[in-house]
Amino acid sequence: ASLFCLAFPLLLLYAAWYDVSTMTIPNWVSIGLAAAFLPAAFAAGLPMQLVGLHLAFGAGVLLACAGLFYLGVFGGGDAKVIAAASLWTGLAGVSSFVMGMAIAGGVLAVSLILLRKMKLAPTKEWAKRLLSPQEGAPYAVAIAIGALIAAPASPVLAAGLAGMGV
């Protein structure tokens, strides 16, 4: 389970980095995160009933996030990464995931507002985009932080961490 579980932090960190760099999240990141869940769950020895609950929860989160995307609350990439990460965290980690994501998102927003008011003149294209008042926020950073905070509550990730001797 431990090798499959590496997909969770690595893909979340990649999504955060890519979002900061480009203000987008590639679809393959969400697909990979979702696809790695099943082999990790089976390798961790999760009962089929619990795997089914995680899948149902992830589907519910995807529907809720699709609605929020439709309302313009956040981007489609954000919606997909939140849903894919929710497969892993499940109901056991939802409160710490949402709370961590909300706090990290607030810190991210305040930081961007302050940096954008400083009228810095970055030379790198990604930094210009990040500091542009016309751009949104690379919310995958907050998603990754929230999901990583919630990771210990996940039975799949707890088994993976135990397999790594953590």
Order of helices and strands: HHHHHHHH
Helix/strand/pairing category:
mainly alpha
Number of strands: 0
Helix fraction? over 70%
Mean pLDDT: 92
Assign an overall shape. elongated
The major pleated sheet works out as: none
* Poorly predicted regions: none
* Residue fraction in strands: under 5%
> Distance between the terminal alpha carbons, to the nearest Å?
13 Å
Task: Give the C-alpha Rg.
Answer: 16 Å
Multimer state: single chain
Number of helices: 8
Describe this structure as you would to a colleague:
It contains 8 helices and no strands. The model has no long low-confidence stretch (mean pLDDT 92). 78% of the residues lie in helices and 0% in strands. Helix 2 (7-22) runs antiparallel to helix 7 (140-150) and helix 3 (27-43) packs across helix 5 (76-117). The chain is mainly alpha-helical. The chain starts with a helix and ends with a helix. The chain has helices spanning 2-5, 7-22, 27-43, 48-70, 76-117, 125-131, 140-150, 155-163.
Helices and strands in order, then pairings?
Elements: H1 2-5, H2 7-22, H3 27-43, H4 48-70, H5 76-117, H6 125-131, H7 140-150, H8 155-163
Helix pairs in contact: 2-3, 2-7, 3-5, 4-5, 5-7
Primary descriptors:
166 residues, mainly alpha, 8 helices, 78% helix
